[in-house]
Structure prediction request, 199 residues.
Amino acid sequence: MTSATSRDLVAVLQMTLDGRILDADGGSAWVDSWADGLELLPPVNGFVLGAGMFSAYEQFWTAMLEDPAAAAEMLGRDPYPREIAYAELAAQTEHLVLSATLADVTWPSARIVRSIEEIRTFKHDDVGAVYVVGGPTLITSLLDAGLLDELRLIVHPILVGDGPSLTNVHRSPQHLQLVAAEPAAGGRVTLAYRPARAG
Prediction:
């Protein structure tokens, strides 16, 4: 999948069977672990996310390493080994945070980028895989810009009826090709799509 001159940008979303990424109250009780997305990817050498989710993301994964009791309180359980592994990787791997308004970030592995074009430059300055953590506005912007190489979905067997979805923010038609579909634990299904490129 990776070319000799660029990284693959791969997004992972956890969603309900009726296409919601959160319920009407902003919750996602159906998600067992936010580390599960990373397990669907090859080894990554970068992360990309939007400003809207960065603060909570940084707080959560920092606590996972520096304050396990606080992390356990957030989770309502002890952290899984795969969550500790995610936190260790995140702490040492570059994160690009797309934002027009953030003035600064304090997390040592993060830096702010101001435009999609800076992500394009990042994509083409190395090889490997990049985890596009989200949110949906960023993912659809990367799709529209032709920069997202793959979209992977973890579909949970629950219907919530209302709440935000990827399609709430999508701006233009996108044709995708299904490249993998696999059953997973707990009745989940993982789906992998690639944009259908012209030519």
